[in-house]
Amino acid sequence: MGGGEVISFTTGLYGVGSVKSVKYAITGLRSFLGWAFMEGLCGRALAGTVPSAAGHGSNIPQGLSVPEVDALLASCDRDTVTGRRDYAILVLVVRLGLRANEVASLTLTDVNWRAGDIVLRGKGRCEEKLPLPHDVGSALAEYLRPGRPDGAGDALFLRVRAPVGGLASAGGFRSDPGREQACRA
User: What does the DSSP 8-state code read for residue 110?
Assistant: First the structure.
């Protein structure tokens, strides 16, 4: 058996099953041919002759277009507390590429207005400073300017409805701001 037969066999797999099943078969064939060579059952290393399976599409999500982002930002009613909060969150996501959990875990002290940066805390107590662009800072200031309710803690973004507390990335809320402080210390 040679490389030509391996290629012929592999291309014959197309049309027999789904792209996913073809990819599994090709992976199995590569593994088998590598094992057969290592065991001396095959005189040549044929695993490298197995062609890759062509996939349809990609698992990478597509981003929004500029008009879609503009429409999303314009949909926030900035005359309301909720609208100002949602607009500030969306500007952080769009301009800095923050994830939901990063936005939800931001605190008032993470924003350094004088230095013009914002601190993100990741896994393993890793801290990363990002610049605070003017439009992001303006959106945050517009959200924070009217004041905060008593008992809000230091979470940057708050629930609009009771109980007062910070947002959670899963859509819930952080109800114990004192516990949050203890976890960070």
Answer: G
Give the Å distances, CA to CA, from 82 to 88, 114, 130, 142, 158. 10, 26, 25, 12, 9
**d(Cα 153, Cα 181) in Å, to the nearest integer?**
9
CA distances from 16 to 6, 9, 12, 134 (A): 16, 12, 8, 56
Query: How far is Cα 121 from Cα 108, in angstroms, rounded to an integer?
Result: 13
Q: Which CATH class is domain 66-184?
A: mainly alpha
Q: What is this structure's pTM? A: 0.60
CB-based contact 52:31 (threshold 8 Å): no
Per-residue pLDDT of 39-90, as tens digits, reads: 888 878 888 888 887 766 556 677 888 999 999 999 999 999 899 999 999 9
In this structure, the dihedral spanned by the alpha carbons of residues 175, 177, 179 and 180, taken in order and rounded to 10 degrees, is: 110
The ranges assigned to domains in the chain are: 3-49, 66-184
Per the CB < 8 A criterion, the answer to whether 91 and 134 are in contact is no
Chain-centroid distance, C-alpha 32: 36
